[in-house]
Design brief:
19 helices, alpha/beta, 7-stranded parallel beta sheet, 7 strands, about 375 residues
Length: about 375
C-alpha cells in the first residue's frame, strides 16, 4: 500500500471546478496542514489530493511538503498555457502530479511530461484501452493506477493489462475459501467472544488476558502509552483494570484480537475496522444508540474480509445480540444506520453519509470520524506491530 486518496465535499454539490469545490479543496489542504495533520490522516503514507484548476493556478498545493502528497488533475481541467506553466513549476519544485481518469485521446495527455502517476477508471474503458495506456506509459516510467477495482476478476485483468497499482474495494471484501481455514483463528475468535460477554466480571477479564502472554504485554504497553494519558507506569493487569475499569480494557483487548484475526489479510483492514469502531462509538454517544454495542458492530464490520468467509459464518463464534448480528448482516436497524453513515463518509458518499435519519447535525459525523482517525492511528502504532 502506498497511500490514501483524500476526498472532500463540495458544499454546493456542484460540478468540479465550481466555487464550492474550490473552497472545499482549499479547506481540505488547510485542515491537512493545521488541524488533522497529514501524518495522522495518512499514517505517513502518500496523500492523493485532487486539485481544481483554480487551486492549481493559485498555488494552494504549496501548503504541503512535496514528499507528502501527490496532486491529481482531472480530465475536466482545460489545459492551456497557464496550466502548463503551473505544472512545470510544481514539478520543478519536487511536487508529484497524477493525471486522473486518463483515457486514450484525453486532452490531459499533454501533461504527461509532468506526471508521476496516471489513474484510469477501469469501469469506463475496455481491456484493450487499458492495456494500450499501460504500454504507452511504461517507457516514461509512469505507473498506471487502476481505479474502481471492486472484484477479483477486475483485479486480475487489470494486472494482466499492465496496471501496477490498484484502488478499490476488492481489497476490503471477502474471498470465500473452502476447508478449515477458520480453525486457525479459533483461539482469537473465542477470546473475542469471551471478552464481549455482557456479564463478564473483572476477575474473569483479568484471567482471560493473562491466558495470553503477548496480549498481557500489549495491554500494559497500551495503557502506558500516550493514548490513555496515565501519568505513572502501570505494572500489572489488575492495576490496569482498577485504574481504567473494564470497558477500556475489554475494548482494547478486542482490538488486539481483531488485529490477530487479520493476519494474512491486508494490514489496512485492522486499522479500518478500528477506525469504524471508534467512529461508530463516538456517533452513538450523540445518538440514542448503545455505545458499547456500536463499537463492537464497527469493529466486526470487516470480519468477513479478514477471515475470507461470508459474514454469517464469520459471526458464528461471537455472542452478539440479535440487533448487532442483523446490523452486520446488512439488515436495517439503528445500529446499521450508524454503520452505514460511517462507511459512506469513509468512501466520500457525502449525501448518503449526512442524510441519515439519525443525524440532525451535519458536524456530528465529520467530528466523530476525525477524532476516530487520530485514535485509531495511535492505537495501531502503539500496539498492532506485534
Amino acid at each position: 500500500m502506498i497511500g490514501y486518496e483524500l476526498l472532500y465535499r463540495d458544499g454546493a454539490n456542484g460540478p468540479p471546478g465550481a466555487v464550492g469545490a474550490d473552497m472545499a479543496g482549499a479547506r481540505l489542504l488547510a485542515d491537512a496542514v493545521l488541524d488533522l495533520r497529514l501524518d495522522t490522516i495518512t499514517d505517513g503514507r502518500t496523500a492523493f489530493i485532487n486539485l481544481t484548476r483554480s487551486l492549481l493556478l493559485n498555488g494552494a498545493a504549496t501548503l504541503l511538503r512535496p514528499e507528502a502528497a501527490v496532486f491529481e488533475l482531472g480530465e475536466d481541467i482545460s489545459v492551456d498555457g497557464d496550466v502548463l506553466e503551473a505544472c512545470y513549476s510544481l514539478s520543478a519544485s519536487g511536487f508529484r502530479l497524477a493525471l486522473d481518469d486518463l483515457a486514450p485521446g484525453s486532452t490531459t495527455e499533454t501533461l504527461l511530461p509532468f506526471a508521476a502517476f496516471a489513474k484510469t477508471d477501469v469501469r469506463k474503458l475496455s481491456r484493450a484501452d487499458v492495456a494500450d495506456l499501460a504500454r504507452r506509459l511504461a517507457p516514461r516510467g509512469v505507473p498506471l493506477v487502476a481505479k474502481n477495482v471492486d472484484t477479483r476478476a477486475v483485479f486480475e485483468w487489470t494486472r494482466e493489462a499492465g496496471c501496477s497499482l490498484f484502488q478499490g474495494y476488492y481489497f476490503c471484501t471477502p474471498e470465500t475459501r473452502s476447508g478449515g481455514a477458520l480453525t486457525t483463528h479459533l483461539t482469537h475468535l473465542r477470546l473475542l467472544s469471551a471478552l464481549n460477554q455482557p456479564r463478564l466480571s473483572m476477575d474473569e477479564l483479568e484471567e482471560l488476558v493473562k491466558q495470553d502472554a503477548v496480549l498481557s504485554l500489549r495491554v500494559l504497553q497500551c495503557i502506558n502509552s500516550a493514548a490513555f494519558a496515565i501519568r505513572r507506569e502501570v505494572r500489572s493487569i489488575r492495576e490496569a483494570l482498577v485504574l481504567l475499569g473494564m470497558g477500556p480494557i475489554r475494548k482494547w483487548a478486542s482490538v488486539w484480537c481483531l488485529a490477530k484475526l487479520s493476519v494474512g489479510a491486508t494490514s489496512e483492514l485492522a486499522t479500518m475496522a478500528m477506525l469504524r469502531a471508534r467512529a461508530c462509538e463516538l456517533m452513538a454517544e450523540e445518538l440514542d444508540v448503545d455505545t458499547n454495542e456500536m463499537f463492537l458492530v464497527g469493529l466486526c464490520s470487516l470480519l468477513d474480509a479478514m477471515l475470507n468467509r461470508p459474514m454469517k459464518d464469520a459471526l458464528n463464534e461471537l455472542p452478539l445480540s440479535e440487533p448487532a448480528r442483523k446490523a452486520l448482516l446488512g439488515e436495517k436497524n439503528p445500529l446499521r444506520s450508524v454503520l452505514d453513515a460511517v462507511i459512506a463518509y469513509e468512501t466520500g458518499s457525502w449525501e448518503d453519509a449526512l442524510t441519515s435519519d439519525l443525524i440532525h447535525d451535519e458536524a456530528t459525523l465529520p467530528r466523530a470520524y476525525g477524532n476516530a482517525l487520530a485514535w485509531a492511528r495511535e492505537i495501531s502504532a502503539a500496539n498492532l506491530s506485534a
